[in-house]
Design brief:
The chain has 239 residues and is of the alpha/beta class. It has 6 helices and 8 strands; from the N terminus they run ββααβαβαβαββαβ. The structure holds 3-methylbut-3-enyl trihydrogen diphosphate (IPE) (2 copies) and magnesium ion.
């Protein structure tokens, strides 16, 4: 199963990191960096069709990010609400289908309503599939999936012998998405911080020093272009 990536990545996932440091280095509050980071999202989403990227998944807020100060957390939640309200029309017009992954139970009801509405209003779109990971953690996702899977076993809808690599991911938040081909993390940290643990088993990784608010369409294009030269073996032997 050796595969040289003749084409570009179909699905790119991004850990958008470095907003806080970007703001701090300018003597500004961390939320200033988050606002600058949000502006980059639009630019990167609109770059996808030209780069042949059909699926873009972005890490916006992790299940661990609740540990931050109340000011930062509530500022981020307000930013997410405003982002949805402000960008809905543009996303619809650009043919972007939006989905959210993560646990919605802990999120503010007003925010969840906006998320549901954005998913519904973009449901017919197919040009770019944007997935936003909000209150997302890979371990939490696997735990929630396992809970639902166990319920199906308990109710007799699933046989334990039928649990395998094909059936288990149907219970994940990402059940309708292909696995990411390329995961990019900005800001110089070389870790995945609980992002898409199951799905990225064979992803290519790119860790770059650029802070997220400085991540441009050109940098994105360069990284996507580099991907094509990689030899993905999926455990097979090199040819
Ligand atoms: C990423 O930037 C955005 C979120 C995690 C919400 P950070 O806020 O983690 O920025 P740094 O890592 O502190 O610079
Ligand atoms: C990962 O960044 C989460 C998001 C980008 C939303 P963090 O800044 O939270 O990760 P750590 O704490 O450096 O691992
Ligand atoms: Mg960070």
């Amino acid at each position: 199963m050796t595969q040289t990536t003749a084409g570009g990545p179909q699905h790119v996932a991004i850990i958008m990191d470095g907003n806080g440091r970007w703001a701090t280095s300018r003597g500004r509050p961390r939320l200033f960096g988050h606002h600058a980071g949000a502006r980059r999202v639009k630019e990167i989403v609109t770059a996808c069709p030209d780069l042949g990227v059909k699926y873009l998944t972005i890490f916006a807020f992790s299940t661990e990010n609740w540990k931050r100060t109340q000011t930062e957390v509530s500022g981020l939640m307000t930013l997410f609400r405003r982002f949805i309200v402000r960008e809905t029309r543009g996303l619809v017009n650009e043919g972007v289908r939006v989905r959210f992954i993560g646990d919605r139970v802990q999120l503010d009801k007003k925010l969840v309503k906006l998320m549901d509405e954005l998913e519904a209003v973009t449901e017919g779109n197919d040009r770019v599939h944007l997935t936003v990971a909000l209150n997302y953690g890979g371990r939490d996702e696997v735990a929630r999936a396992t809970r639902r899977l166990a319920q199906d076993v308990a109710s007799g809808n699933l046989e334990p012998d039928d649990i395998n690599e094909e059936t288990l991911p149907k219970y994940l938040d990402t059940c309708v998405l292909p696995d990411p081909d390329l995961v990019i993390r900005t800001s110089g940290e070389a870790r995945i911080s609980n992002f898409l643990l199951w799905q990225s088993a064979y992803a290519e990784y790119e860790f770059i020093d650029t802070l997220w608010p400085d991540f441009s369409r050109d940098i994105f294009g360069h990284i996507v272009g580099k991907f094509s030269g990689r030899n993905r073996r999926f455990g097979g032997a090199s040819v």
